[in-house]
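lol ok so funny story. i was supposed to be doing the assay writeup but got distracted and ended up predicting the structure for this chain instead. priorities right. anyway since i did it might as well share w the group, maybe its usefull for someone
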Amino acid sequence: MIRRLLNPILADLRIIRERDPAARGTLEILLCYPGFQALVLHRLSHRLWTLNVPLLPRLCSQIGRLLTGIEIHPGARIGHGVFIDHGMGVVIGETAEIGDRCLLFQGVTLGGTGKEHGKRHPTLAENVVVGAGAKVLGAITVGTNTRIGAGSVVLRDVGPDSTVVGVPGRVIHQSGVRIDPLAHSQLPDAEAKVIRNLMERIDTLESELIRLQTCLREVAAGRPLQEACGGRAQSLKDREIMEFLGSGGDSELEGDPGGRINPMMKTPSSS
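and the output, tada:
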């Protein structure tokens, strides 16, 4: 039993020394890292929980919360090499599962939805990074090597090798790219990209309107047109915007492979 408790604790020590440049020694980690201390207490309380010991596991959990500001339910399953950095305000629910080498920052919530019994908290696969203040809610699964940006709210399953940003969280895939778990500055700005696309569309529409006005003036004056007055919708930009908004842009573009129809201007079906 002692060996089973020590192995994950030693793995937690190694991952802190590997990922935190501020860690100057083992003694400093033991005495000054609340995330590590909370995990040590949790591994003890979880062992008591699996043995069906009454009251004591929850009491141990509350002592850990009092000392570290990190609340981990004794029923939560946490893998080896997990690092809770800073940690204040972290909440991990009863049926949550955290894989090996995951990294959680302060203010993270792995919470449940509803009052039903059974699995109601998220599962994080291996090497997942959850940024400060992010909320992962419900019985969902977050795939391997995924990053969740600070302040994001994740409510749906996330595949592996993904980046999630925003409220609610939206997925931007980066399959096959090895990502530094501490490179927070490299998180994509999906909202800025959509705003840029919208501004480009507005500029294109204004240019098209001016061109159409010129065509009308030429027709009114009885002069022949020098160029066609028709335009082509920028369906790619529309697709990016609709995917960001979660409107199912792909399904709305079915039957229009050439991109000739502007999907944002389609009228609803009479059925």
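The chain has two domains: 2-186, 190-264. Residues 247-271 have pLDDT under 50 and may be disordered.
back to the writeup now i swear
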